[in-house]
Amino acid sequence: MKRSMAVTAVAALALTACGNGDGSGAEGETLSVWIMEGTNPDAGEFFEDVKADFKKETGATLDVEFVQWADAHDKFVTSIAGNTTPDVAETGTTWTAEFADAGALAPLDEQVQDAGLKDDLVEGLAEAGTLDDTLYGMPWYAGVRSVVYRTDIFEELGLEPPTTWDELLETGLALESAKPELTPFAVPGDSANLAYPFIWGNGAELATQDGGKWTSGLDSPEAREGLQFYTDLALTHGLSSAGATTWNEKDVLDNFVKGNLPMATMGSWAMPTILEQNPDLEGKIGAFPIPGPDGGYSPSFLGGSHLSVFEASKKQELAWEFVEMMTTGDKAAEWAEQTNYFPGQASLLEKSTGSEDPMVAPFATQMVEAGAAVPVAPGWGAVEAKKTLPAMIQSILAGDKSVDEATADAAAEIEELLNGK
Amino acid sequence: MRPWLLLAPSLVVLAVLLLWPLARVALISFQDYGLREIVSGRTNYIGAANYLEVFRDPQLWRVVLPNTLGFAVAAVAGTVLLGTLVALLLTTLNRLWRTVVSSAIMVAWAMPAVTGTYVWVWIFDADNGLVGQLLQGLGILDEPHNWFTDRWSFYAVVLVNVIHHGFPFVAITVLAGLLGVSKEMLEAATVDGAGSIRRFFSITFPTLRPVFAVVVILSTIWDFKVFAQIYLMPGGSGSNRSVFNLGVWSYVESFAQNRYGFGSAIAVLLTVLLLIISVVYVRTLFKEEK
Questions:
Q1: What's the Cα-to-Cα distance from A19 to each of A11, A27, A314, A315, rounded to whole Å?
Q2: What is the pTM of this model?
Q3: Dist CA A354 CA A339 (whole Å)
Q4: Which of A42, A198, A283, B204 has its CA 20 to 30 A from that of A84?
Q5: Residues of A whose CB is below 8 A from B237
Q6: Are A172 and A187 in contact (CB under 8 A)?
Q7: How far is A347 from chain B (nearest CA, A)?
Q8: Cβ proximity of B13 and A2 under 8 Å
Q9: Residues A276, A277, A283, CA angle at the centre, nearest 5°?
Q10: Whether the Cβ atoms of residue A377 and residue A209 lie closer than 8 Å to each other
Q11: Strand (E) or helix (H) holding B72
């Protein structure tokens, strides 16, 4: 039994060795790629095109596997442990530093330099893909969250998109009294991304580094005031629902699609998803940037994805060809157009931010005027994975802790995780 | 020598599939083992530091252990009780109804834990759930209530889910045992004037003791290491810290925090705890039989 296993293993090694023996041309080779799915619009058709084009260009076959965002982190880790990583994968911007730090990703600086792309990457995305001055994640697309609302309901009630926090509250109360069956503004307990604007908007930071030591600003008076306002929308003013206490972003989207929410914070990519799932809402949805406390905008989390090449891949050159094809030129522009994401190539981004499409423009404003990143620290992935902020928000919404207690606990946990034990 | 030779193939399979992973978990639990170690394959022994951290963590004593133990006791009791009652009901039915009822409970058994959990989450949904709307309709609840934020109501939903999923196995196993109980003895007892409760505890239960031993031990093991039914509930994957049990805590520390050493230490603790409970239980059982 053991012996036969050993024989198979040797045979497999020999085979892979043969497969990579000749370096000339990629004819007959297969490149394995993981692409995320879940909140993104259906990408199946787009990748059928990509496969055909890639075959035409390089002669190699693409093996695309779609992975659910929710399971992806575990799947990456187990594949790294089992040495079964794909050649290329889409990595969330907050994961790239973590996997690079572990030594699982290949550096891309040389290729980017040779392709003359170095100065044409969107800055925030490139920064998130960089660890110790080395680029491990090629910026592919960016997304930002703003408030999506039902234009038909606002029109019917004569409401305008709010421009300050007080107006946001007033608009919510007006919706509540006119349409009591709806949830005017969901405050979901299981989402940090949707709470960030109320922390940043009031001038607080999640964490700042000073002399190598991280300090969290969550227990500052500004953060506490912002979170008090955010959670009071649910607790004092009843603009949220009991169920929302345990909602995540997917639940917000589902409820908006069902027509239960007249406005909610969502990503730009949610727009095509909403219309795909509920075509009746065509022409009835719009968006506005998240208002600041006294005008202006509250910064919103600028997330996105990189394409990363795995260190263990034996087809580094072919992998880069794929990465370059996806992140630049026609394919990148087409992807951004279809998904309502923003491209990761600066020259392409300029075109989208100048767009006057009502489905794109508010998000572009949000991204350019008020997009913000979470702290770039290898430990921030652990903060996200530990659900420090969702635990904080949920405990406030459930009435288990006051804002002061919950923020103090969360700040202590963030400092512990970022500074290492 | 020959018996070992014949056993060898299955022993090798067991060693590869069970013993080796078990030994790996034990080894990793003594290391500071993260993503970096996974990629490089290096070892990094730190002695018993992971175990010390587990035992010093107030979360273990205040949340994780009470949740794990309390839930297991309630779930085992509930599963065995309901399963036995259903088995007793089945013996009184004629062939047609027995087939109908046992097929119905088989469906509950065959349902994957993940699907079952989502159905229960749906039933208890705060805004549109069946239970909430029923209670509001009856005037017991004034406004929607989120059942998943409170530790007790969260585990009440888990309990219903786990019992619903676990009782069919008990019912079918106990039914098989019940069919083997001597009818003559039961009839003789009836003639002597024993009621149904007396007959159950004096004749049926002693005959079924080994069957109960099996279902209780298996249910204990299953209910101790319950994972999906908690992890998939709203807040169960980390945003509600008061509902962690040993399994979920181990998973979150290992796979979300990349602290595989610490997570393994929790997993080893869970295994040892189960071993102790099973040994004590089997011992007392066989002592009583003597």
A1: 12, 11, 10, 10
A2: 0.84
A3: 17
A4: A42
A5: 387
A6: no
A7: 36
A8: no
A9: 60
A10: yes
A11: helix B65-92
- Helix (H) / strand (E) element for A30: namely strand A30-37
Q: Which token pair is B43?
A: 């070892």
pLDDT in tens, B10-43: 889 988 888 999 999 999 999 998 888 887 878 8
Q: Letter for the amino acid at A242?
A: A
Do B225 and B270 touch, CB atoms closer than 8 A? yes
> How far apart (Å, rounded) are the C-alpha atoms in residues B257 and A4?
37
**Residue B248: strand, helix, or coil:** helix
Residue pLDDT, tens place only, A61-90: 999 999 988 778 888 988 888 889 999 999
What ipTM, to 2 d.p.? 0.84
Residue A236 DSSP one-character state: T
Distance CA B199, CA A35 (A): 64
Strands A130-131 and A342-343, sheet pairing = unpaired
Q: What is the pLDDT of residues B78-100, one digit of tens each?
A: 999 999 999 999 988 899 999 99
Predicted pLDDT at A3: 39
Determine the residue type at B101: V
Within 10 Å of residue A359's Cβ, how many Cβ atoms? 16
User: pLDDT band at A11, cuts 50/70/90?
Assistant: very low
Nearest to A206 by CA among A305, A92, A299, A95: A299
How far apart CA A50 and CA A65 sit, in angstroms, is: 13
Measure the N-to-C terminal CA separation of chain A; round to a whole number of Å: 44
Count of residues in chain A: 421
| Residues from chain A contacting residue B35 (CB–CB below 8 Å) | 77, 80, 98-99, 101-102, 104
| Three-class SS of A368-388 | HHHEECCCCCCCHHHHHHCCH
**Residue A323, CA distances (Å) to A30, A81, A83, A242 in order:** 15, 24, 21, 44
Chain A residue with the nearest C-alpha to that of B122? A243
